[in-house]
Amino acid sequence: MEVERLFHGTSRHDRAATIELHATWLSFLRHHHALGFDRAAEIAELERRLEALRGQFADRYAA
Question: Is the pTM of this model over 0.85?
Answer without folding.
Answer: no
